[in-house]
C-alpha cells in the first residue's frame, strides 16, 4: 500500500552520509530540472520491497512541468521512479557490482501526463502503473529498452480512454547519471492507442514515436500522454501516417524479433501414443516432464536475445532491443549477439519432424502476418514464447544462419523449442491465405489454415483453450 507525502528535500549538511547515495543522485537530476520544487508530492511504499512489501519502487516523485508553449510542449505532470536502480548500495535490493556497470537494472521510469485545466495536484494512478511495470521487471529480471512496447489491454487510468498500451523511449529532459553504484538512465512511458501499438509491432516503436512527436495532440516533442485523446495518429492524418508506416515495413521490416504468447505446437509425425515422443506441447495431454537442467538451459537460451514475460498474470511485453545497432545486412544470425537472436545450444537432441500443427490464440494469430511480412521477407526470424511454460516456436527464413531447421528438414525441434524454416515463395502463399488476420475486426474462432503439400496446419483458437489445456 502506498502513501502520499511531500519529499523532505535535501538533508542537512551533517546528515549527508546517512542519505542513500543512489537516491541522492536521482534527486540531484530532478533538482536540476525543478530547482523551485524541492518538496514535490511523492508516492511512497509504506512497506518497502526489501522488507517484504509488494511494491518494488520505494518512491515516485511527481513534479509540475510548465512545458514550452512556443515549442508545442504542453504543461504536464512529470513522474519519476526510485527503485529500479540501486538506491542503497548495501545489497538489500540489488547486488552491488561496482560503479562501472549499470546500477541495479540500470534505469528508472518516468511518465509525462497532460495537466488538465483546473488540476492543482497530480493524479496518483500513474504511480500504480509504474509499480506494475517495476513488478514485471523484478519478477522476470527482464529490463526495458527504448523502443520496447507493452501490451496492456486496458485504459491506463481505468477509465474509458483509448490509451490502453505503452511504448518506451528516452526521457527528453533527464540525462543519464553516474552514481557510486553504477549508471542510471531514464526511460519514459508513453501511452498509445491499440492501432498505434499494432503499427509499432508491425514496424518499430521508434518510428511510431517519431510520428507522434510531430503531432502536438498525440504527444508532441516530449511525448506527453493525454488520456482524453480520442483520435489515433492515423485518424488525425489518415493518409500520410499510414503511408509512412507501410513504407517503413516494406523497406526496413519489423524490429520486433519475438513476443510472449499463448501458443502450443503438435508433432503430427508421430502417433499420440508414442511415449518416446519428446514434444512437451500437446494440448489435451500432459507435457513431458523436463529435467530442471533442461528447463534452465532452454530458458537461458531464450533469454539471450528476447525479453519475454513468463508470468501469465502480467501483460505481454516485447522487446525491440538493439534495433539501432543492427547491421545493414538483410540476414540475421541465430549465433549473433548483435542481432537480438537466440543462441542455439545442445539442449536436447534435434529431431526432424514431418508434419506440425501450430496453435495460437487470437492476439498471437494476428501477429502472423507481421512475422511473415515484417521479419521473414527481410531475412530475419521471429519467435513466439509461451507464457504458460517453456514452449517456443521460431520461424526462420532461408538466409538465417545458425538455425537447426533446414530447407531439407524445415521442421525441427529441440525439446519444446520448434523451428520452422519457410521459403520466400511459401511465405508469399501464406500471406495471401492469412490475409483475414490483418483485419481489425474480431475473427470468428476457431479458424484453421492448412497447407497439405507442406504438411503444415495452423489453428487460431479461443483463449479458453490455452487457459484450460487439460479440459
Automatic annotation (TrEMBL):
Family (UniProt): Belongs to the SUFU family.
BP GO terms, sorted: negative regulation of smoothened signaling pathway; negative regulation of transcription by RNA polymerase II; signal transduction
Suppressor of fused C-terminal domain sequence ranges: 243-460
PANTHER family: SUPPRESSOR OF FUSED (PTHR10928), SUPPRESSOR OF FUSED HOMOLOG (PTHR10928:SF2)
GO cellular component: cilium; cytoplasm; cytosol; nucleus
Compartments where located: Cytoplasm; Nucleus
Pfam families, alphabetized: SUFU (PF05076), SUFU_C (PF12470)
Predominant subcellular localization, coarse grouping: cytoplasm
Protein name (record): Suppressor of fused homolog
Chain ranges of the Suppressor of fused-like domain: 53-229
Entry annotated with the keyword Magnesium: no
Compositional bias (Basic and acidic residues): 322-334
Region described as Disordered: 266-295, 313-341
Keyword Phosphoprotein: yes
Keywords: Acetylation, Cytoplasm, Developmental protein, Isopeptide bond, Nucleus, Phosphoprotein, Ubl conjugation
Amino acid at each position: 500500500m502506498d502513501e502520499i507525502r511531500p519529499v523532505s528535500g535535501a538533508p542537512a549538511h551533517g546528515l549527508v552520509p546517512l542519505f542513500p547515495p543512489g537516491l541522492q543522485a536521482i534527486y540531484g537530476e530532478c533538482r536540476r530540472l525543478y530547482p523551485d520544487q524541492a518538496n514535490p508530492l511523492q508516492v511512497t511504499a509504506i512497506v518497502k520491497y526489501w522488507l517484504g512489501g509488494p511494491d518494488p519502487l520505494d518512491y515516485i516523485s511527481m513534479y509540475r512541468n510548465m512545458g514550452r508553449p512556443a515549442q508545442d510542449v504542453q504543461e504536464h505532470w512529470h513522474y519519476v521512479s526510485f527503485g529500479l536502480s540501486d538506491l542503497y548500495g548495501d545489497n538489500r535490493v540489488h547486488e552491488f557490482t561496482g560503479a562501472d556497470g549499470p546500477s541495479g537494472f540500470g534505469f528508472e521510469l518516468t511518465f509525462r501526463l497532460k495537466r488538465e485545466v483546473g488540476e492543482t495536484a497530480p493524479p496518483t494512478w500513474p504511480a500504480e502503473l509504474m509499480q506494475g511495470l517495476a513488478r514485471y521487471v523484478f519478477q522476470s529480471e527482464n529490463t526495458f529498452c527504448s523502443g520496447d512496447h507493452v501490451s496492456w489491454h486496458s485504459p491506463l487510468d481505468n477509465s474509458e480512454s483509448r490509451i490502453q498500451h505503452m511504448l518506451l523511449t528516452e526521457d527528453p529532459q533527464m540525462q543519464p547519471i553516474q552514481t557510486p553504484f553504477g549508471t542510471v538512465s531514464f526511460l519514459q512511458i508513453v501511452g498509445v492507442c491499440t492501432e498505434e501499438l499494432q503499427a509499432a509491432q508491425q514496424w518499430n516503436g521508434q518510428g511510431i514515436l517519431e510520428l507522434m512527436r510531430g503531432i502536438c495532440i498525440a504527444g508532441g516533442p516530449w511525448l506527453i500522454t493525454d488520456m482524453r485523446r480520442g483520435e489515433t495518429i492515423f485518424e488525425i492524418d489518415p493518409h500520410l501516417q499510414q503511408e509512412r508506416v507501410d513504407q517503413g515495413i516494406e523497406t526496413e521490416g519489423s524490429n520486433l524479433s519475438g513476443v510472449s504468447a499463448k501458443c502450443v505446437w503438435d508433432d503430427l509425425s508421430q502417433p499420440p501414443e508414442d511415449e518416446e515422443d519428446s514434444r512437451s506441447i500437446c494440448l489435451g495431454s500432459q507435457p513431458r516432464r523436463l529435467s530442471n537442467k533442461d528447463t534452465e538451459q532452454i530458458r537461458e537460451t531464450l533469454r539471450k536475445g528476447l525479453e519475454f514475460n513468463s508470468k501469465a498474470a502480467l501483460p505481454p511485453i516485447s522487446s525491440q532491443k538493439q534495433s539501432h545497432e543492427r547491421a545493414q545486412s538483410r540476414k540475421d544470425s541465430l549465433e549473433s549477439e548483435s542481432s537480438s537472436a537466440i543462441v542455439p545450444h545442445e539442449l536436447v537432441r534435434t529431431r526432424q519432424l514431418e508434419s506440425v500443427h501450430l496453435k495460437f490464440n487470437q492476439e498471437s494469430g494476428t501477429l502472423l502476418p507481421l512475422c511473415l511480412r515484417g521479419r521473414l521477407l527481410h531475412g530475419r526470424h521471429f519467435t513466439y514464447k509461451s507464457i504458460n511454460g517453456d514452449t517456443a516456436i521460431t520461424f526462420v527464413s532461408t538466409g538465417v544462419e545458425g538455425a537447426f531447421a533446414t530447407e531439407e528438414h524445415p521442421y525441427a525441434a529441440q525439446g519444446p523449442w520448434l523451428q520452422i524454416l519457410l521459403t520466400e515463395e511459401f511465405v508469399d502463399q501464406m500471406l495471401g491465405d492469412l490475409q483475414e488476420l490483418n483485419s481489425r475486426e474480431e475473427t470468428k474462432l476457431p479458424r484453421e489454415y492448412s497447407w497439405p503439400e507442406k504438411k503444415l496446419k495452423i489453428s487460431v483458437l479461443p483463449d479458453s483453450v490455452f487457459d484450460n489445456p487439460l479440459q
